[in-house]
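Hi V.,

You were right to ask for the full record rather than a summary. Here it is.
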Amino acid sequence: MGTYILKRNETYFYRRRIPKKYLHFFSDRENEIRIKLGKKSKIHAMIISEHLNTVYEEIIMKIDNDMMKNKNIFEIFPLGNSYTASQNMEFQQTTKEQIREGLFRTHILAALEAKLKSLDLDNLVTIHNDIDIVEKIKRLLASMHIEPDAINHAKAPTPPKETINEVKKSNVKFKVLYELFIKEKLSENPNIAKSTLRDYESAYEDFIFVVSGAPDRDITGFTKEDFREFLNALHDYLPTSRTKKGEFKKLSYQQLKAITLDASQKMSHNTKQKKMNIIKQIFDLAIDARYGYLEENLVEPFIIKNSKNKKQKGIKRAPLSDENLTKLFNMPIFTTKRDYILKFQPEKYWIPIISLFTGMRQNEICQLYCEDIKYEIISTGEKVYYFDINNDRDKSLKNINAKRKVPIHPKLIELGFIKYIDKIKSKHQRVFPNLRLHPTEKKYNTDYSKNFMKYFRKYVTAEKTQVFHSIRHNVSTQLLNNAVKHKIPKDLINRLMGHEPAKDETSQSYFSGYDIEALYEGVRTLDFILYNNINQKGLSF
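Predicted structure:
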């Protein structure tokens, strides 16, 4: 039997899964019993767990026995089925909540907590062998009006059928644990993203590449030195895309250790962190109460944590240089392939241009619905179109300040954006229907971002500080420069960009926000001369 102890932030907990045959009485989140043991030594926690396990098993046996005697209960609530009107009317009046309270809150939790209180925790280790556990259990059960004889003669419950490839708790190989881990993930989410499965496989392959004989090693045989070696390998020896790059593809781990990698060849902090976390998740399954193959996860101390000054220490994004802006908007999608792109992949054309003339974030643009394109008539009688940025439907926002209205620049209208909207909304709800909502990240820009960066690195620059988000920095910089020349309030710029508004008391307490006309005056000051290189004719339909 496993110890069924869990350690979180120096505190130990006792936990046991609700038997599968009773899970239908509970919600999806209520699938285990958990009791706090406190900040004790591991040996104390293990001994307490042994006492609580005995109580738990006895109570489950009693409940099973009662369920077998009461044919109505057993027939009305078979696993996976619901009762019908023709079945026992008296029992139908008992709600699931009452059963939940009766079976588990009273019979199990109360007994376990009572047992915990009855233990002499200070002297528990020294007197452990002298404790008459059976007698204490009988006294506990008697206090709960359960006859000890019923327990003595109760038959052990029939074990539930295996849900996922049951593995013996001895001699479990790492490759078997990994296979079990993948099956668990697929069981939890049958639609799990292929990219996530690739991440799992990549971490596993790197681990067995570094740790000698890892696939066929018993999981109890791994030591802290193995995980320390893997951590060192992630930091210093494993290059990014190791299995794809010809110069590294055929090298052994020992050969890689003899090579000094430069900064551009090493994995990013996020990649190293993700791989180590995946290995931890695999071994977490081994200490899960359902399996109990291990008592602790030795990977825990080697997890790569976020730096407290991550933003300061990380790569700072910079605005695109004039040269790189020109390169970007002279890519084939804006010149020689423009007509084809507009017909079949309009998102590739419009998203960078919208960002350039609004400063909107990439996902804010990618997730737009046609209904988010609106207009107002301003004091001059002019119709001003704008983007209504919100988190309605399946959209998401970075923060509360991101919810805003951003006027559409005259240049976008000149290029035919409103005509594009009028055409697309007759067939689709979304502005860019080719983009999907990523199943795990729940964003519309995930696929687009990867595709954009592929061409951006090829045609524009390999400089790591320059990315799509750099366009937003260009817009912010130009707006701030225009603040004096065009007398634009800096707080108006904050609201256009979706930043936190001014912190002065007047702005926060009495100002309700800028109207579309004021925001439009700010947006129309944006002027990128390099854009003259782009074909400025309206779209042809």
